[in-house]
Amino acid sequence: IAIKTLFNGNREDAKKQLLVLWNENKKDIEQRALIAYFMGLIYKYEKDTKSQIYYLSISASADIEMANRDNASFHDLALTYYDQQDFDRAFQFIEKAIDDAMLCKVRYRIIEGTSSYPIINAAYQQKISSQNRQLVGLVIIVSILLIGVIIGLVIIYRQVQHLRRIRSELSATNQQLRSLNDEINQTNLKLSESNHIKEEYIAQFFDMCSSYIDKMEDIRKALLKKATNQQWDALREQLKSTQMEEREVQQLYVNFDRIFLNLYPTFVDEFNALLQEDEKIYPKKTELLNTELRIFALIRLGIDDSVKIASFLRYSLRTVYNYRTKVRNKAAGNRDAFEAAVCQIAVIDRA
User: Fold this and answer.
1) Is the pTM of this model over 0.70?
2) Which domains does the chain show, CATH number per domain?
């Protein structure tokens, strides 16, 4: 009756009747499959797609459960999904509808399915092609991006390497600058020390020169007096005597020792620190420096030529050489580096 009412065009009455039948046949799968199918048709006419799909799906599920191959629900679902542009599901359902039609060998079902299949298949294939094109496009875009990333990484890597080289070069340059600065500081220190020594010795030089001029004047007057008084024997004895020379040499040593120790007051202690414990060298109580210390005092001042040392101190060259060798053999450390260590002794006291 409900189906007849539906075909007569009275969809509202048909819907009410079908809903009553729906509630009355909850356990009858075959009836529910049929009722659900016609409910789907009613909602199709009412353009209620959601309800249409709902009831057609129930009908299709019931047909599967009953193994009913002669059904219309799969075909109608395929067309519904096609109208909704859901070509994947439309294609699945049309294939299912055709398979069932071929198995049940119902001619009109086969004709119905095969007539809709080309349309749905064309839409489905077009969608697949579109998706493939999109996929290819995405692959191309991803590839381009990947290439860009690789190029970027290569550029970054090169920049990092370049920065590392620059840092390394800067570090080396800074090290060279520090080394050069240290050398400049050492040079300035030596120049400052040299200038101080010059100032000290120049002052002492003028003082000694003035003293020697006075002494020479006294000697001249004494010799002139003896010559005037014709004291030839006394004059001869005075000229032959070496006492004055020896006295002046001793005075030279005293002046040198005094000036040197004024410049390097810790020289003796630091010099002995370079020697073996039982080989220390100290001057006598009546001396400021002895011969060994005086030779190495000149070396500390930068005079390391034995000929010049011998000339300055009025020693023989062999004496100077023997003293230098003897003291080097007493060194606590490396003998070859002993005199270089002596040159580093003491800091000038500028107080």
Assistant:
1) no
2) 1-128 (1.25.40.10), 241-344 (1.10.10)
